């Protein structure tokens, strides 16, 4: 008896759709998505496609019509519910565009629930493009089989972020200066601080003294070290999220 083939095929295109999906509905995809399917993937009627909506989950569909500017897809089967991600926020000062795009992309891949750009005294980038950041998150989710996207917060001043901080959510504050003192073990901090959390990453050059004191004075702040080496902001973000996911997230 021949083996049952894997279905849907791993080669099926996988796209995010910003509308509520359900079994049996037919969708008309246009714009860049239609171009990608019709002109890049050479989709034709009968081809399989996987869609997810960041609301209800992931669905298998079948192309029913394909043209250069419009592709119609009939949803035939719900594959899985929207994934549940750990309650971790990443709050980070914007850095150079390409590196901040990378940070947003990795936040999605690693399973961060909310990504918040934070303006600090040493932030060299005072504006962000939310649509661009979200596009990078979507691309990461499409390629890595994620069925949820991080919530993207507005660019917020550090003082305002701390003033409005929700009770009960720890702030793991990456402070490179405490490693020399032998304090601030991230592993020990994770053992002692369970529950909803956030990781706070400063700009290139770090937080200034006033900001550092303000963060340490906050009742939810937990200063931690990321080891003996100084890390660039984007590397620090990925390292800290990975440590938290391994200690308190869903990597166990």
Give a written overview of the molecule.
- The chain has 7 helices and 12 strands.
- With 252 residues, the chain is α/β, with parallel strands linked by helices.
- The strands form 2 sheets. Strands 6, 7, 8, 9, 10, 11 and 12 form a 7-stranded parallel sheet that branches. Strands 1-3-4-5-2 form a 5-stranded mixed sheet.
- Helix 2 (97-110) links the parallel strand 6 (88-92) and strand 7.
- Helix 2 (97-110) crosses helix 3.
- The model is unreliable at 1-6 (pLDDT under 50).
What is the CATH homology-level superfamily of the largest domain? Answer: SPOUT methyltransferase, trefoil knot domain
For the largest beta-sheet, the strand count, sense and barrel status come to: 7 strands, parallel
Structural class: alpha/beta
The CATH class label of the largest domain is Alpha Beta
N to C succession of SSEs? EEHEEEEHEHEEHEHEHEH
Q: Outline the low-pLDDT stretches.
A: 1-6
CATH architectural type of the largest domain: 3-Layer(aba) Sandwich
What gyration radius follows from the Cα positions, in whole Å? 21 Å
The N- to C-terminal Cα distance equals 38 Å
Kindly state the number of beta strands: 12
Question: What would a concise description of this structure say?
Answer:
The protein is α/β, with parallel strands linked by helices.
Question: Which helices and strands occur, and which strands form pairs?
Answer:
Layout: E1 14-16, E2 26-29, H1 31-40, E3 48-52, E4 57-66, E5 71-81, E6 88-92, H2 97-110, E7 114-119, H3 130-143, E8 151-152, E9 156-157, H4 158-163, E10 170-174, H5 186-192, E11 197-201, H6 209-216, E12 221-224, H7 233-247
Parallel strand pairs: 1-3, 6-7, 6-11, 7-8, 7-9, 10-11, 10-12
Antiparallel strand pairs: 2-5, 3-4, 4-5
